[in-house]
Design brief:
mainly beta; 3% helix; disordered C terminus
Length: 119
């Protein structure tokens, strides 16, 4: 079973047990966050798309927080002896997908209006 979720501004295709490094999330290590499935939920039998998929919740556990690889940015302007070097390490959160399919509300089909006709 897989789902497409949106986490920290990016979309990810996840399965149960998937480990992701995403942008920093304000939560403690060990916390479990519930994220709605964004587009598609596929469980080998049927596929939910759109609003049906949005009712499916994905449980994500915060595994750890860490710093990412260093990103070097260099600026150079010729003929004026201007050079600038900046290095930054982004804050990342490692998350683990625990469960897919914890629905927050079951979608029921619309019931037709019952009209009683007297004869």
């Amino acid at each position: 079973m897989y789902a497409i979720i949106k986490l920290s501004g990016n979309q990810y295709r996840v399965e149960t047990g998937t480990r992701l490094e995403v942008d920093h999330i304000e939560a403690k290590e060990g916390d479990v966050i519930s994220v709605p499935a964004l587009l598609v939920v596929d469980d080998q039998k049927n596929v939910k798309i759109g609003k049906d998929a949005a009712s499916t919740q994905v449980s994500v556990k915060i595994a750890s927080h860490k710093l990412g690889e260093k990103i070097d940015v260099s600026r150079f302007r010729h003929k004026v002896r201007h050079r600038r070097h900046i290095g930054v390490r982004p804050h990342l959160t490692v998350v683990m997908v625990e469960k897919i399919g914890d629905e927050k509300s079951k979608v029921t089909p619309k019931t037709a209006k019952k009209t009683s006709k007297k004869l």
